[in-house]
Amino acid sequence: MDVKMLATSARHRSRTTATHARALARIVGNRQIPLLLSLSKNLATPVYRAFFLTSAAGHGVLRTLAQGPAGADELAAGLGIPGGGDRLRSWLDIGVQLGDLGFGDGRYRLRSRVAKALSRPENDAVSAALEEVVRFHATVLLQAPAMLRDGRRLSLGDQDGGVIARSSRIVQPFIEEAIARTLDRTSPVRLLEIGCGSGVYVRYAASLNPRLSALAIDLQEEVAEEAAANMARWGLANRVRTRHGDLRALELQPQFDLVTMHNNIYYFPKAERTAALERARALLAPGGRLLLTTSCQGGNAGLRALNLWFENADFGGPLPHEHELVWQMERAGFTGVSATQIVPGEQFRAFVGTNAHAFRTAQA
Ligand SMILES: C[S@@+](CC[C@H](N)C(=O)[O-])C[C@H]1O[C@@H](n2cnc3c(N)ncnc32)[C@H](O)[C@@H]1O
């Protein structure tokens, strides 16, 4: 290279460096860049993680990786994806980038504490609760203003009964505490559970009282079928009958000592709750009791999103206020109605009322 060429190259390099420096100054001076970086770290990344983990848990990938590291081809085969794992890699690599999966020697493994925890069967309710947030709460948060503007509403079909039955178990310790406080443990008890979901609370009641027999009903056919399968699996099929049905249309004689409704009063529109409670009361023998547990108004962001979902549904209504539900139970003919906050600070209540007069009807 001669002297002239050297000089030209040096001039070019210094022009390039100056161009880079000016570009950098423009970028650093742009106020949107720090905002973008902050959003990416504090908002977008947690959202991506929530979505990735929901998908990985829901498709069984976390459970598979809990057995040991696996390659993309093996994971693709497990998921029934034809043609190997090449196209699944982009999805898996996002998990690696987010820190939830690790990768080495051509195989993926669980890495983050959250991914490991969600892979455990005993944390299934938490996994389902995350899925509820991602699939249903996020949808209503995104769409509520437009739905209100366009007069659109959510319907029961916009939910996934199986996921909701699993996620509802997040409050299992509270509900079991309420059942333990209410249930007679020695006399024979005829229990009617309305909206039984997976059936875990009937199982719990049956475990506390060996003389208890039950009818468990659920509005959604696939949920009732799952509950029936669970009863058989738990060896309770001879004590618990399971039926697909709606409380409002159920043809039964008043015969039950205890009626339970867990996590479903908001499946009834506010104006129809007294009638639904009256229907539940009418199925109780004289002296029988209703135990109703529910999240109430005023809770955390998750409960407010749940409230928003049902407020915008065409079949349900908002979470109840404690005083309002007590009043509705009294109007439905229950006596001695009590409301108990089972866990201090949590907006979760157990309501108990007695059917003193078997055939008393609600006033207007
Ligand atoms: C949020 S899930 C709760 C399931 C279960 N009770 C639990 O706590 O795990 C509410 C359930 O109530 C059922 N349900 C709602 N309205 C009902 C009705 N009118 N009659 C019977 N079941 C009903 C739904 O189908 C759903 O499975």
Automatic annotation (TrEMBL):
GO biological process, one term: methylation
E.C. designation(s): 2.1.1.-
Organism: Streptomyces mauvecolor
CDD domains per the UniProt record, alphabetical: AdoMet_MTases
SUPFAM superfamilies on file: S-adenosyl-L-methionine-dependent methyltransferases
Example GO molecular function: methyltransferase activity
Database matches in PANTHER family: TRANS-ACONITATE 2-METHYLTRANSFERASE-RELATED
The UniProt record lists the keyword Methyltransferase: yes
Domain Methyltransferase type positions: 192-290
Alphabetized UniProt keyword annotations: Methyltransferase, Transferase
The protein, known as: SAM-dependent methyltransferase
Residues forming coiled coils: none
Matching Pfam families: Methyltransf_12
